[in-house]
């Protein structure tokens, strides 16, 4: 099997073009490359490793910064929420629109209330928390996982009563305030291996670290070879 000259030239041109982009626009190139394989955690993991080799940081998913695809953010690349499992692209686009119209989400309650019912469901919120996208609110993941279910139920119940006209104006305000004041418990954060396991569960990769990180120093003087 062999290429004819015209076919070989076409491949050569594409090779030069992509090499030029990777050399002169490495962050944009790698962000586009990872966006092209959103459904393949294995390929994303490989490209993140390549980013590390190039000295490009890959920032974790964030409800106040991420979009559905991988984006360039300063000198780094922001992880795209489209790579998080059980989260629809339509939901993410709605979230970005809400963020552009009303500013950053201030808390988990604010996020749930502003997103409304629509495509936002408990599974999506749970995965946002597990993958670290809700870390921007300053709470431990253990705390948000303990309260998001009841918080969503309270806000949904309040919204339903308002729509059914069962409450007066002041009652509506009181009910909304009550839903927004659901206390977030003070809990210790989960151990690092547990957090990494949640990231692996929801994204298919580790983003904030790796289970082998604690052993890298002790392995430096051994004959263990790195394969990824």
Per DSSP, the total helix count is 10
Mean pLDDT across the residues is 88
- Structural class, from secondary structure content? mainly alpha
Distance between the termini: 32 Å
Largest sheet: 3 strands, mixed
Report helical residue fraction: 55-70%
SSE string, helix = H, strand = E?
Answer: HHHEEEHHHHHHH
Strand order across the largest sheet: 1-3-2
Number of strands: 3
Radius of gyration: 22 Å
Molecular shape: globular
Number of domains: 1
Q: Beta fraction of the residues?
A: under 5%
Low-pLDDT residue spans = none
Oligomer: single chain
In short:
The protein is mostly helical and 228 residues long. It has helices at 5-24, 26-35, 41-54, 89-102, 108-115, 122-131, 141-163, 169-180, 192-203, 216-219; strands at residues 58-59, 71-73, 76-78.
How are the SSEs ordered, and which strands pair?
Layout: H1 5-24, H2 26-35, H3 41-54, E1 58-59, E2 71-73, E3 76-78, H4 89-102, H5 108-115, H6 122-131, H7 141-163, H8 169-180, H9 192-203, H10 216-219
Parallel strand pairs: 1-3
Antiparallel strand pairs: 2-3
């Amino acid at each position: 099997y062999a290429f004819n000259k015209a076919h070989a030239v076409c491949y050569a041109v594409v090779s030069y073009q992509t090499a030029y982009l990777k050399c002169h626009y490495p962050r944009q190139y790698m962000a586009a490359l990872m966006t092209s394989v959103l459904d393949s955690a294995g390929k994303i993991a490989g490209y993140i490793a390549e980013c590390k080799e190039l000295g490009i940081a890959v920032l974790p998913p964030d409800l106040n910064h991420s979009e559905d695809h991988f984006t360039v953010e300063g000198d780094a690349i922001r992880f795209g929420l489209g790579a998080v499992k059980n989260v629809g692209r339509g939901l993410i686009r709605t979230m970005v629109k809400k963020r552009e119209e009303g500013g950053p989400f201030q808390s988990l309650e604010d996020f749930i209330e502003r997103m409304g019912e629509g495509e936002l469901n408990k599974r999506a919120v749970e995965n946002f928390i597990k993958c670290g996208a809700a870390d921007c609110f300053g709470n431990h993941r253990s705390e948000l996982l303990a309260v998001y279910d009841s918080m969503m139920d309270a806000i949904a119940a309040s919204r339903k009563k308002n729509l059914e006209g069962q409450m007066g104006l002041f009652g509506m305000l009181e009910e909304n305030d009550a839903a927004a004041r659901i206390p977030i418990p003070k809990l210790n954060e989960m151990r690092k291996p547990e957090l990494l396991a949640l990231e692996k569960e929801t994204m298919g990769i580790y983003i904030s670290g790796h289970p082998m990180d604690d052993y890298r120093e002790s392995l430096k003087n051994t004959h263990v070879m790195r394969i990824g």
